[in-house]
Amino acid sequence: MSYTISVNGTAHTVDAEADTPLLWVLRDILGMTGTKFGCGVAQCGACTVHANGTPVRSCVLPLQSVGDLQITTIEGIGDTDIGKKVQQAWLTHDVPQCGYCQGGQILAATALLAGIPNPTDADIDHAMSGNICRCGCYTRIRAAIKTVAAAQQA
Amino acid sequence: MAIKVSDRDAPAARRSGVSRREFLLASGTVGGGLLFTASIPFFGRSAIAAEASEHQVTIYARIAPSGKVTILAPNPEIGQGVKTSLPMVFAEELGVAWSDVVIEMADYQGGKMGNQQSGGSFSTPSSWLPLRKAGAAGRQMLIAAAAATWKVPATQCTAADGIVTHAASGRTLKYGALAAKAASMPVPDLDKVTLKDESTFTIIGKSVIDPDKARIVAGTQQFGIDVKVPGMRYAVFQKGPVFDAEVSSANIDDVKAMPGVSHVFVVKGAPRLLEGPPGKVQGLGIDDGIRGGVAIVADTWWRAQRARQKLTVQWDEGTHANDSTAGFDAQAQALFQRPPEGTIRVDGDPDGALKRAAKVVRASYAYPFISHVPMEPQNCVASFKDGKVEIWAPTQNPASGRAGVAKTLGINPDDITIHMIRCGGGFGRRLANDYMIEAAAISKEIGEPVKVLWAREDEIQHDFYRPGGYHNLAAGLDAQGRVVAWDNHFVGFARTEYFARLAVPGADAFPAGFVPNYALKTSRIAFNIPIGPLRAPGDNAHAFVFQSFLDELAHAAGKDPIEFQLELLNNPLPGEGQGKKGGNPFGPGFFAARMIAVIERVRDMSPWASRGSLPSGTGLGFACYWSHLGYAAQIHQASVAANGAIRPERIWAAVDVGRHIVNPTNAEHQVQGAIIDGMSAALGQQITFDKGRVVQSNYQNYQLLRNNNIPQMEIAFVKSDYSPTGLGEPTYPSALPALCNALYAATGRRIRKLPVRVPELRA
Question: Which of B249, B346, B406, B569 would disulfide-bridge B592, Cβ 3.0–4.6 Å?
Fold first, then answer.
């Protein structure tokens, strides 16, 4: 079946089964591989994208449910002011080790900071605990979020 | 500007070196550059065997007329930073500015570039001196070229930041301008090059951020899973529910009728290809190969995965369909009722000393099998054509992958090309290459390029697990509370009469060598479950046992746990604790003095002395361990709520991996990551078996620490006067007992079985 979805501000028409998760539409049909596969059951957050600015797990979002949602991926998040700042803070703090989960981490952090410009540790706990980092870069993730928050307050 | 390794055989290349195995090559390149190759055995010339190509460190570098220096990173990047750190060591001695360096990831070179393996924290200790010699030789040739140009003695010239300077005349020449001429200079003897004064280092010791990371944050960095080649199909491979199961029958036609599916076929298993004869294990002893199953190939991965839901297989489950964790536990208890079967080490008279001891403490410890679960599931792209295969793989260990593919496909190893792609985590899992062999075999069968990708469930249920184990311990204390006897009966897992590799504690595992009457004896449970190295193999399990039991003994003796271990370390048996025994090919054995130094450092940087004033339900725990040549001591602060909920609050760690920290940002990353990894294993990880099947399937029942439970960490590197060693593993082992000892301090409940069970900590 044919569906038209909006990814990073561009409309794409794709032909796939209705139950195809958005993750695999992005990766294997549209060739946008920045969004990663980790678990397939919304447990790890590697596949996080934004749907109308809200972080969602694309591995469990069927194509037929995307509809008019504006999807933003790691490839497009730098086009937003806050997304760009988060990416820069990630480099300043040298956050990644292997880097595989970091697209999802950045999307989760960007949504957090867009909603709560100066998050508390409890806010960070709540917003970031759906994203596993197997390498254990958590302390730098927290530090990078706080750097962006501090710059926002200045 | 890609470097072709075949360039090293160019006719113009000139060569030095006294043997086939140690050499330096320099040649000009088109357009006036210098191509530079050095290959140096890391065991030292006298120690190497006739076939030593795997035991070489080889560097390829090209200096362009622009002054840009391109260095091929030899070893796979799994997030540990080796793609940056090894070129840093070479560039330091070459005398270039780091801003002029470009790093390219090497392909696997079939042994011409060493074994190109990332594992065991071996990259740094094995490469440190060879890479320095190679860089120094390059610098010497560039200086010689400048001296010849100016007609002055080379000894009057110096080099730094890619510029040769003749101070007396104030003249300078850039490396780029000298590159062509340097290629015609005498090639130095690598044993006689002059290394830099280490106090003048400008690159080593300064944090360098891997350029891949800019692509990572932009979502454009390629990982193995992202590789796409023209005409590529996608495959899932359904393996048996029991290890070594074979397909009896399957509804192939039903699956073939699913949308997008092009091929469905049964693959007969051929595992354990590379397992050597007992006592002569090849490579890492991982039983690589292909397991029996059904391959489903489609035009997208999701369609292959979706078709798998229609698959029904009748399996021949073989002889291990009744293996279970409950059964293993019962076998261990039965074995503990009998005398041990084997002996690893005995000092003195442990039985007699136990009888004479003023106080005897007994305890049983156990830990489970655990899985690696790197974030990027196993995957590989393979393209088989005309008897040759090209492979794109996130692997830590391309050499054994090539051997396994060659053997499985029946082709010549030289007909296999392996591109090493950045790995989404390794932790030892990608030292095995089963996914690579699957991809190659499926591509050969369908005659087209294919990407094999595992689902997370495949990953957790078909790992090469860290084996579980059981220890019964008895220790005797004298009237002064000193350890006078230590008796350890270890029950571990074994195939046939041999222990699973890396399952058994080493004869030099502390406190061995520091207790006058000591025994480490063993018994075996037969099993058939694939096992392999997981970060800090062996130590990752035994440190929990030994360091927890030492904490028990300190409390039984009424002593400060840190002072108790310092007292032990200060009283070695004759010849022990001075670096003479054990160790590994890349470094010396255990030095008690280095451990004492990190213990004192972590004690003094933490509030250990004032731990008595912590609130109720909060405690500090201490542990130390020597692993993969690195010395780590850590103190954890944790609190436990009335409902048993655990809160890791703060961590202090002191680490000695030698006199230099090559890349501080990565070094700190490795310490932080390994500690969190160890805590994660202690608190949430276990693989259990029932009817021969792995019970766990995904992250909901195989739990990792998340960002809401991460303590603050303070890390200190103690710089000792030894060559730098690796950091992937050393801080993992002591994390588990430090946390468990903190939980004891907080609750009075001793953790003797992993993972920690929250209900057992409830008030």
Answer: B569
Is-contact B534 B466, C-beta < 8 A? Answer: yes
Q: Are residues A142 and A93 both part of a single domain?
A: yes
A125 and A94 in one domain?
yes
Chain B nearest-CA distance from A149, in A, is: 18
Q: Which residues of B touch A129 (CB under 8 A)?
A: 706-708
* Token couple for B421: 């792609």
Is residue B6 scored above 50 in pLDDT? no
A132–B704: do the CB atoms touch at under 8 Å? Answer: yes
Q: Is A102 in contact with B216 (Cβ distance < 8 A)?
A: yes
**Domains observed in chain B:** 5-204 (3.30.365.10), 224-317+372-461 (3.30.365.10), 535-761 (3.30.365.10)
Question: Does the predicted model carry a pTM greater than 0.90?
Answer: yes
Neighbours of A34 (CB within 10 A): 25
Mean pLDDT of chain B: 90
* Angle, helix A81-92 to helix A102-115, in steps of 10 degrees: 130
Domain holding A101: CATH number? 1.10.150.120
In this prediction, residues B623-636 reach a mean pLDDT of 97
Nearest-Cα distance to chain B for A46, in Å, is 8
For B6, half-sphere exposure in the C-beta direction (CA atoms, 13 angstrom radius) is: 0
Query: What DSSP string describes B581-611?
Result: S--BTTB---BHHHHHHHHHHHHHHTTGGGG
Q: What is the 3-state secondary structure (H, E, C) of B638-690?
A: EEECCCCCEEEEEEEEEEECCCCCCCHHHHHHHHHHHHHHHHHHHHHCCECEE
The answer to whether the Cβ–Cβ distance between B219 and A132 falls below 8 Å is: no
Selecting from A38, A77, A142 the residue whose C-beta is nearest the C-beta of B375 gives: A38
DSSP code of residue B187: P
Chain CA centroid to CA B388, Å:
30
**Same domain for A149 and A87:** yes
Look at chain A and report how many structural domains it folds into: 2
Sign of the alpha-carbon torsion through B582, B584, B585, B589 = negative
Last residue of a domain, one of A44, A72, A100: A72
Alpha helices per DSSP H over B227-377: 252-256, 301-308, 325-336, 350-356
C-alpha distances out from residue B202 to A92, B95, B160, B208, B294, Å: 21, 9, 9, 12, 55
If asked whether residues A43 and A83 sit together in one domain, one would say no
Give pLDDT tens digits for B688-743. 999 999 999 999 999 999 999 999 999 999 999 999 999 999 999 999 999 999 99
Mutate to test the interface with B, among A19, A22, A135 (most CBs of B within 10 A): A135
pLDDT for B35 equals 83
**Cβ-defined contact of B79 to A46 (cutoff 8 Å):** no
Q: Give dist(CA B134, CA B59) in Å, integer.
A: 8
Residue from the list B228, B374, B700 with its beta carbon closest to the beta carbon of A134: B374
Question: Does residue A66 share a domain with residue A89?
Answer: no
Tell me which residue range forms the domain holding A16.
Answer: 2-72
Q: Does B306 touch chain A (CB under 8 A)?
A: yes
**Smallest Cα distance from B650 to chain A, Å:** 12
Regarding whether A61 and A81 lie in a shared domain, the answer is no
| One domain, residues A104 and A42 | no
Of the pLDDT bands very low, low, confident and very high (cuts 50, 70, 90), residue B498 is low
Give the closest-approach CA distance of B241 to chain A in angstroms. 19
Is residue B537 classed as helix, strand or coil in its secondary structure? Answer: coil
Q: Which amino acid, residue B571?
A: N
Single out the residue in A21, A49, A72 at which a domain terminates.
Answer: A72
Are A43 and A8 part of one and the same domain?
yes
pLDDT for residue A95 is more than 80: yes
Cα–Cα distance, B456 to B462 (Å, whole number): 10
ipTM of the complex: 0.98
